[in-house]
Amino acid sequence: MLKRDAVALARSSAPVFAALGDTTRLQLVQRLCDGQYYSISQLCAGTALSRQGITKHLLVLERAGIVKSARRGRETHFAFAPGAILPVQSYLDYVSTQWDLALARLQEFVEAPEASAVKPAAN
Amino acid sequence: MLKRDAVALARSSAPVFAALGDTTRLQLVQRLCDGQYYSISQLCAGTALSRQGITKHLLVLERAGIVKSARRGRETHFAFAPGAILPVQSYLDYVSTQWDLALARLQEFVEAPEASAVKPAAN
DNA sequence: ACTACCCGCAACCAAGAGGTTGCCAATATG
DNA sequence: CATATTGGCAACCTCTTGGTTGCGGGTAGT
After folding, report:
1. Does the pTM of the predicted model rise above 0.70?
2. Among A20, A21, A34, whose Cβ lies nearest the Cβ of B102?
3. Does B98 score more than 90 pLDDT?
4. pLDDT in the model for residue A77
5. Three-class SS state of A74
6. What would the pLDDT profile of A94-116 be if each residue is shown by its tens digit?
7. Domain extents for chain A?
8. For a disulfide at B67, which of A9, A104, B61, B86, Cβ 3.0-4.6 Å?
9. Cβ separation of A99 and B80 shorter than 8 Å?
């Protein structure tokens, strides 16, 4: 992966990570990921927060693209939108892959140090 | 997955998500995930932030378990620590799986509505 | 028409995040 | 020893976040 792609991936992933960086919102996503639509009142039930608190969290999720909303009658329904989590998974895959490659290089280094020396980062 | 497990997963994942919810920190992780150790000054090079700014970000990553530090001489070295991202990947896997199951149920519903009606959430 | 419900808007508040600067201690290096 | 590098600590600032309350407006049910 080119470095500029990595930077772009970081830029597109950061808002999604930030939106998921809250216990309340993670639990909301867990309730929503069954594909159904839920009204705000339904999502408030069972939580200790006020309706406005839940609403704010839902708006955060919607701005990050993790959730979509549709007003129907007097109710606003929210549902999971799977698209936003793709760059996040890509980012984690990238990090995991790099880590695995690093382990592989280390293994190779241990087995044949003179043939594949890992150059330490230049100071 | 039981609901209490899901809640526990959310609780353990949220701090990691939050720590990754920043472009600067995502780029730091990208630089660190090659398995090598880097000093703070090295990680400062190329960024527009001050050393203290980078240090704060590194401490956030360390408190979330994404990164580990070791002082050696006058330098503090940081390296990637892969353990913390496991619950995050588990969470995303859970959400993706639930979403796929929901799609599968929808598909089944379309093909045989009378045999597998999805009960809409009760109001 | 009246009532109950669902929700959006605005104001407000406390706490934390992100970032800077200044200063000082410790370690390398000549 | 003198000096430059490295970085930890503390103070400070601004903006955002997470949360609340109060109020008013639309929608549904009777």
Report:
1. yes
2. A34
3. yes
4. 98
5. coil
6. 999 999 999 898 888 777 655 44
7. 3-84
8. B61
9. yes
